[in-house]
Amino acid sequence: MLLGVVVWVLTLVICYFFIGHYWWFPPPISQHGQAYDAQFNITLWVTGVIFFCAQIALGYAIVKFRDRGGTARYTHGNNVLEVVWTSATAVLFIGLVLAGTRIWAAVHFEDAPPDALKIEVMAKQFAWAFRYPGPDGKFGRLDLKQVDDQGGNPFGIDSKDPAGKDDVTSASLKVPAGKPVELILRSRDVIHNFFVRELRLKQDIVPGMEIPFHFQADQVGTYEVPCSELCGLGHHQMRTTMEVMTTADFDKWLQEQAAQK
Ligand SMILES: [Cu+2]
Prior knowledge:
Bound molecules: copper (II) ion
Radius of gyration: 26 Å
Helix content: 25-40%
Structural class: alpha+beta
Number of helices: 4
CATH topology of the largest domain: Immunoglobulin-like
CATH architecture of the largest domain: Sandwich
Number of domains: 2
Largest sheet: 5 strands, mixed
């Protein structure tokens, strides 16, 4: 009897916290983030209503069929009911997965728009580096032998290539608001993960691979970029920021950085 009541109370408390959106995600800053949240809410409502009904029914069964000193009865169950709820669950899950995949694939399977600003990302134990092509719009060649973290060349930009002379490297990510951005993700050692909560995006970075990844941030502000793959003892300190700037501020920053070279 008491157990049934505990199940009901727990169900009500859980539903209260979900519906009230306490400890919720930070607001999204991109169209993808909004689409992601809308899909997340649909999934949560569908599964939430089923969860609520199932838990209330569970509490009811506990109360109704509690031990009253009678004898237990064996039943074979009901085949029709089994088929109905198994099929309904399958249709529901496949439907939700298909709807969610559409939003996920728009980022991961579709190419970035041709005018996207390309930024290279280098992840390593335990720091981030970002490279911009500079005013000439071209990335300089890389030479692994010239990688020098202390000397400010974490990418190993080849000093002999003129296209690399104006390349800008930064320890934090700066992007213009309202413009498509394409990141090219690389790792120098182990698997890391690029994650920005407000973009609702997360992508593994695998050594030996160049992984393209695109988004458009519409909201000016500073957002945390924590490495989200346990990558070693210093994993907890592998974090930087993504600063979304107005186009004018971004252009100014890039020019200033390139001029300092
Ligand atoms: Cu990492």
